[in-house]
Amino acid sequence: MTAQDSATPSTSIAVSSGTLLAALGVVAFSLTFPSTVWGLESFGPWSLVAVRSVLAALIAGGFLLALRVPLPERRHWAGLVVVAGGVVVGFPLLTTLALKTSTTSHAAVVVGLLPLTTAVFAAVRTGRRPSRTFWLAALAGAAVVIVFTVQQSGGALQTGDLYLFGALLVCAAGYTEGGRLARLMPGWQVIGWALTLCLPLSLAGSVLALSTEPVRLTAHGVIGLLWVAAGSTFCGLYVWYRGMASIGIARASQLQLAQPLLTLVWSVSLLGERLSPAAPVAAVAVLVCIAVTQRARI
Fold first, then answer.
1. 79 CB contacts (<8 Å, ≥6 apart)?
2. For a pLDDT cut of 70, what percent of the chain falls above it?
3. DSSP code, position 2
4. pLDDT tens sequence across 105-146
């Protein structure tokens, strides 16, 4: 048996393990919106986002301390601020505010454009020149989402839609910068330090929000809070980055195409929402556009 032959089984196991980890990350992310809706049963939007960030930061800080991870180099802190602003603060806050008036199925279709938006940000950030096919698919995906949101909102964009589009932009910036930093340090440390960086602000925000917004604890509310803090914000990103490092960004991104459709499933099964006929059609159309960009930009 040659050395190449003996390496094949271990390589196959590594790919299978990486695929499983990345898939678990996608499942965790797909539950974020339903969990946020549950969390809003017990907390106001500002309280939910602030307490969520505090809990996630305590988990991340515990891992960083236990593993004695050294502080990032000074040149990385600016990038971590962008990650914190986009992924830790901006996206959770804007989507939580949007879900006060939007259904999870509606939000899932709009935010399904996130991989594509991130790809556009990455192209601008890295100075690459994607093909014409990439840009045509990107514009087509954006057009599908805009038509869907206007049609679902009665002919005009609503406040919730503006929050969702804002969330797309700030999260895409955070993902892009996080992806750059993940090439320089382990991905879980990127989100870990971003969460820790936000801890003072999150603590202050929690005290202020909890003192001004009513709290009515329910089982759904507590489960929702715990999931968005531990499941979506930290553990989801941890297994996602581990899987992505094992199987590569291109292959992992193909798994993420299932995320909007999974969220539609959770919105029906966990929240009892009724899907409009346009929601699954628009979600599939966006996924096709994203799949084209994934192939075109390689």
1. 177, 178, 180, 181
2. 87
3. -
4. 888 888 878 877 877 787 777 776 777 887 788 788 778 888
Backbone angles phi, psi at 42, to 5 degrees: -110, -25
3-state SS class at 216: coil
Contact call for residues 100 and 160 (beta carbons, < 8 A):
yes
Distance between CA atoms of 222 and 101, rounded to whole angstroms?
21
Query: DSSP letters of 196-208?
Result: HHHHHHHHHHHHH
Phi, psi dihedral angles at 18 (to 5 degrees): -65, -40
Q: Could you give the 3-state DSSP secondary structure of residue 274?
A: coil
- For 177, residues 6+ apart whose C-beta sits below 8 A from its C-beta are 79, 82, 83, 86, 125
pTM of the entire predicted model: 0.81
CB 112 within 8 A of CB 289: no
Distances from the Cα of 9 to the Cα of 3, 13, 243, 258, angstroms: 11, 6, 18, 28
Alpha helix stretches (DSSP H) within the chain: 3-30, 32-39, 45-66, 77-83, 91-98, 104-111, 114-126, 132-152, 159-181, 187-212, 219-226, 237-247, 249-256, 259-269, 278-296
